[in-house]
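To: structure subgroup
Subject: Chain for Friday's discussion

All,

I'm putting the inputs and outputs inline so they're searchable in the archive.
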Amino acid sequence: MVVCVVIFLPALGGLSAQDTRTDVPMKKEHPRIWLTPERITALKAEWAVNPWQVKGPLAEALAWQVTRDEKYARAAIDELLKFRISDHQLYQSVASDAYRWADWVPVVYDWCHDAMTEAERKEFTERYGTYAEAFFKKSWGGLHMPGNNYYNGYMRNGGLYAIAAWGEDPRAPELYKHALVTRWKEITLPFHAGEAKGGVLGEGSQYDRYNFGYLPWLTEGVRTATGENLLAADSFYREFVYYAIHHTTPAKTYAKGGKDPYWQRFPLGDCEFWGGYPDARDGYIADTMLAAAIAYDGTKLAGHARQWLKMVDAPYTLFGKVISAGYAAKTGCADFSDIPLAYFARGRAGHLYARSGWDEKATAIVLQLGQVLGHGHIDAGTFQICRGAHWLTKESTGYSHQFNRTSYRGTDAHNGVTFNGVGGANAYLDGPPEIRTVENQPGYVNAVVDLSKCYKAAASGHKDRDHNPHCSKCIRQFVFLRPNGGSPNAMNRVGGPLVIFDRLESTAAEVKQAFLLHFAEKPEVKGENLVVGKSGDQKLSCLTLWPRKPNYELIDEGAFEGKHDSPSWYQWRMEASQNDAKEGYFLNVLVAQDADAELPKITLIEEEGMLGTRIETPAGASEVRFAKSLTDTSGRIKVTTAGNVPIDRKFTAGIQDVTVDEAGIHWEKLP
């Protein structure tokens, strides 16, 4: 039975100045959150055959719904009534993990509602309603922080409580409006369509997964309680599916010092766990992928989501167990072969992903062109490369970690550029990265980002801490070559060279400009301009074509005095430097390939106003030319590979549009 309740209340602090009328077709009976008669029937059938482990109040409340055994209800209710937030956290602290982490509380109240006495319900709602009001008013996790885990945790908890306490707590309608109108519709949806466009929330490898996992709890609670499907109406979740697929390594991948490979994610931002090698087998992400697969069932997108779930075999949380109960999917798994080999998340993070193929030996890269907020690092313009089961270059991931000559946040811990050993601005940046070009073609991916403003902090009152006084301009251009067009042929022993051209200007001629590249183990300098790092049966060769004779320095990032964590966190940093002119250029070719494969023939192209390279393999040749200019980022590419259509064209300026719908990723066609 569904009833419409209309209640007029004064606005909650922080609520936008709108009509405060709340008109919600709220389900009258309990349970309202997630559980439907069909799901309960399926869970009962499962329990009869294979009872699951009951541990914790949420599992106890579910067991009560399935078995009607009062011992489960009483155990959950006892925990519910013991749940407290201290007055200090409630009224003085800027935030509360105890409240944010306790996602189970409003759900347990809903599921155990009929097993509680009237006095217990009154006691609980009077207390928890006060909590929800108080934390909605906190500045940390407030309305200006939609990508923050406190913001989303508070929105989830307050919204679910409003559903559970509807008709009992007179504050419920206003709490519901604050969660689902003020936060979700007025702030979160624009954030998803803007800064988080493409499915990247930011907040780093550790914290982004919390935000992904928090939101489906709320959207599914709204759906089962009111019939409104918020998740399916938000394009962010379609984008999330393809972000997650591209953000996963091509195969089960080894961590440094690890014996067994596992599916991993590209690390970014703060990352406290996994020894620096984030595990893709995560319940928060699995729940979100499952929720998207259900929301878009019957589409190709759902098939791709289910394929990722099958491939990674990530465990669901209890939420995933409930929403999958008795569900007969219309769409089975769909392999990734028809997913484009590149994906661009156009939001603030500006992540551009590219692969040589979808096979387990493929090369996968991420170009982190933008900059994330919240738990982010000084890493705009960095890049990472994985091939097969091995990382060939990745950032030195960390959370409060110290490295030789730098911290976990510093540009030195990433594959960036420094001037006199100083990287991007620490705070009060003059501006965000300016992504000038994103171009995806069958034979290559081209990207240009102007990082100049990221190195400057003119408005800072602590320029000695924040500002880089040595950098005038820093513009990076990446060209990832797919000479095979993504099709298997003789190129599969070379997973796709990455050509990087840096246009740099220092404030003085004697400033040391340095190109940084990380290796898990100590690489080997071979000759005047080649550095090779091996990882298992793979290797990464970095050939510096310009300057012709760079200065190389190899730095053990674990060689410092002080507290150390496990050895997997510490890598080797290669610095290729020059310091003979204000205007400088770096032209580096990075080749990912089998450890026993010969390096392709790579030569420098130097023409009037141009620098470039010619790369020759048994399958054909590629030529890439860049304008040798601090203001002109044009260039030209020529690729001739057996069995493929030749390429001979100028690079396309501007950002090629990419959209995601239920049929997958669609890149704008270019002339």
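Points worth raising on Friday:
The longest strand covers residues 583-594.
Confidence is low (pLDDT under 50) at residues 1-21, 485-492.

D.
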